[in-house]
Amino acid sequence: MADCKQCGTVFEITADDLSFYDQVSPVFEGRKYQIPPPTLCPDCRQIRRMCERNARNLYWRKCDFTGEDILSQHHSDCPFPVYSTKIWWSDEWDGIEYGRSFDFSRPFFEQFKELKQVVPHQARFVIEATLENSDYTNCTGYLKNCYLISECDHDEECYYSMRLYDSKQLVDCFNCHDCELGYECIDCIGCQRVLFSQDCQNCHDSMFLSNCLGCNDCIGCINQRHKKFMIFNEQFTEEEYRKRKSELHLNEISGMQKLRRECNTFFTKQPHKCVQADHNENCTGDHIFNSKNSNACMDCKDLEDCKYCSCVSMGVKSSMDYTFWGDKAELMYECSGCGDNVFNLKFCTTCTTNLSDCMYCDQCTSLDNCFGCVGLKKKKYCILNKQYSKEEYEKLVPKIIEHMSNNGEFGKFFPKDLCPFAYNETRAMEHFSLSKEDVLNRGFRWRDEKDEPPKVEKIIKANQLPDLISGVPDDILNWAIECEETKRPFRIIKQELEFYRKMNIPVPHLHPDERHKRRMQLRNPRKLCTRQCDKCKKEIQTTYSPERSEVVYCEECYLKEVY
To answer: Which is nearest to 248 in space by CA: 183, 196, 204, 180?
Structure first.
């Protein structure tokens, strides 16, 4: 057991953990340089890695290479130069030009920080050549006609969403796969024309569902399997269903709000599955699928022999403390935002495609055996962006590791002052929300929101909008709407208005950031707790903490309940 140096929480370091640290410890000339056990608890380690990802906040600034106006995940007050994505990926500059020799009289992180502050950073973390009319996106690839979405791939006509894959015409959704014509959906797979629903699969023409599978034409239902024409889990004929649906006035804001309140009350009293998990063998975590021998993992699939991973998928093996991306990744330790054919990376962040045997690298691609590099592409045997021969590299790196070990640096992720983002810009804020005071007390930065005044004909209050979408004029595209909750103005884009009309739903009354915040609040915290199954009383691991009022069943009791 150990005490977390950040929050003081007591956490366990198991024999299997020690075995993994030994497995990934680097070897030079037959000598192993042991990676020490972590000094931070799993949550604090995850928070630090999540601070490396600003997925949703974009700013206008100048490209420091061309001088053109660009959209960037990095605010103009960042200390390093920022290049447009096109320039960053081009051959018009080379990170090797910033190389410098290692100074053994100074700490490694101090030297790395100086390098990081002069090497150009890419404006947005995207595969730009695969984006069609999707400039206002980040952490994306293979998109067409998308706007303000992030961490998404292979999508078309999607807006204001995060973590969408192989989907079309989704608005205000989170973590949805293979869906079409969805609105305000969370953790849904294979759904069509589904609204305001969570943890559903293969459902159609329904709204306000929770944990339903294969349901059509259902409203306000939970834990249903292959049902039709149900409202609040009650069966109706098709004629009765259509009549009652019309009486709910679900094309009006007031009707939707009333039904949402009723669903919240009804759902709370129904059994809840302890975790969202399926097709796993010997796994723990939440929203983990198709995995084997993986523990304490969240929002993951296709894992094998992993621990403390989150938001990674597509073939990740033998990795620990790994956050964001994946895709044929193996032996990853304390890495964030690295992926696509990567092997044996330690303490790396925001590195893309075809990297192997690298440590402490940032914003690099196609590297082999590099240490402490920033912004390098297609290089081998580099240290602090300086080129070495294989023999020189293999002699110098062990000396640097010993130097770092003596300074208490080796085996730790990058310190907070190297983080390029403020805490409340990042994914950490979404899953581990903190007040400004707490953020600053923990040593992170904070950025206050400052909205530019919208250049519009007028600003109208949300409660002045017509209840029915049919009453909303085209002129709304020239207005801004004042959010009912935050008073921040926001605009409606043409494609979005067309979607609301197609789906016959009202224009939203809340700012996109507030809508995203509320979606994230509907998901359970990323923390496994121990409590009893409310039916069989056996001890279970769940993301529903014991003090919560929901009825929570173990998987066995839950399956007996719904089938």
So the answer is: 196
3-state DSSP call for residue 45? helix
CA distances from 396 to 198, 370, 371 (A): 52, 11, 10
By residue range, what is the domain housing residue 8? 2-40
User: Can you tell me the distance from the alpha carbon of 198 to that of 162, in angstroms, rounded to the nearest whole number?
Assistant: 14
Whether residue 22 lies inside any domain: the answer is yes
Task: Quote the tokens at residue 47.
Answer: 């928070």
Can you point out the beta strands (E) in 413-484? 458-461, 479-482
Q: Residues 318, 305: contact at Cβ < 8 Å?
A: yes
Whole-angstrom CA distances from 368 to 80, 90, 125, 357, 479 are 25, 20, 21, 6, 52
Question: What is the Cα–Cα distance from 558 to 550, expressed in whole angstroms?
Answer: 13
Tokens standing for residue 83: 């290049």
C-alpha–C-alpha distance, residues 287 and 278, integer Å: 8
Rounded distance between C-alpha atoms, residue 508 and residue 243, angstroms = 26
User: In the 8-state DSSP scheme, what is residue 66?
Assistant: T
Q: Tell me the pLDDT tens digit for each residue of 69-122.
A: 999 999 999 999 999 999 999 999 999 999 999 999 999 999 999 999 999 999
Within a domain: residue 6? yes
pLDDT, one tens digit per residue, over 453-489 is: 888 999 999 999 999 999 999 999 999 999 999 999 9
Residue 26 is assigned to a structural domain of this protein: yes
Q: What is this structure's pTM?
A: 0.95
Q: At what angle do helices 390-406 and 108-116 cross, to 10 degrees?
A: 120
If one counts the domains in the chain, the total is 1
Q: Residue 268 in contact with residue 281, Cβ under 8 Å?
A: no
Residue 477 forms part of a structural domain: no
